[in-house]
# Entry
Amino acid sequence: MRTAVATFGFGRPDHFERMLRSLGSCPEVVNGTVDVVHFLDGGPGSEQEALRNVIESSGVPYASIVARPENLGVGRQLIGARRELLDEQGYDRMVLVEDDIELSPTYLTSLLNLSDWAEAYTDVGTVQVWNVEAGSKEELQPHLHQVELTNRHFVTYCLTKRAWDIIKPVLYAYEEKFLMRRPYAKRPHYRIRRFMRQQLKRARQMPQGPRLDPPSEAIHNPFPSIPWRSAPTSQDAITSLAMYLAGLHRITTRVSHAYYYGVTGVHCTPELYEFMGFNDQGWWQWDAAPEQFEIRYKDAKGQWLSSHYR
# Structure
């Protein structure tokens, strides 16, 4: 499939450089199997020139740089990138990479292998090979081929045009209603939560065709309730909600091929980073990427795995 890799930058050239250096270690980038497109948001604090210098001096091949003339904010930036690459430029799938994730050289190979495997199932939405699974290299090595359902962060994942076409009406409605005429940091949280509650009243869809079809005990609504004061209102939250309503599952490898270092950012603090368990990430370099995958729904004790949105 024709694949684009979208990176996102706003300020923090040191973060962006660390991410880009790791992306350049992936053979698919070096040999041109994928097209790398850098999306740089604009406005005060954007440091676009510094980010351009990081890109140009890195030697990492890229197809284009999309520098926004104004500040779109995280929501419009990420939704806009999906619109431009999947709707307008006709890519079959895209990999989204934020500026606070370090990738293993096996990252893209594993991710695209998993994407190819998942396309046999009409009820798979996004795939990722970033996860939080503690353990030594020796403990994790036997589990490289295992995948599981997830509702974790969207810091980096692969999305196909097929899945995007199913969920984009909800994302575009969210963008138009709540993001177009105000800064992202000032989005109307209560109105968005009302929008989410309204969406959850709809019947959950069931995709046609061959499905992964997990047992009901393994499936968890990322938003079983929408607390007025605390439910997340980000575009990631709406993406996760749209996936659930469309009957699409998010899957990840049990063992990670990337390391999330976003201790501070738009949605994270050192306290939250620790609370979310990111200090327990097993971060190891692997000699090879898995080519075949096996889904697991229970842990070693026979208990159903669970994952809520966080």
Notes: The mean pLDDT is 94. The radius of gyration is 19 Å. The domain at 3-295 is CATH 3.90.550.10 (Spore Coat Polysaccharide Biosynthesis Protein SpsA; Chain A).
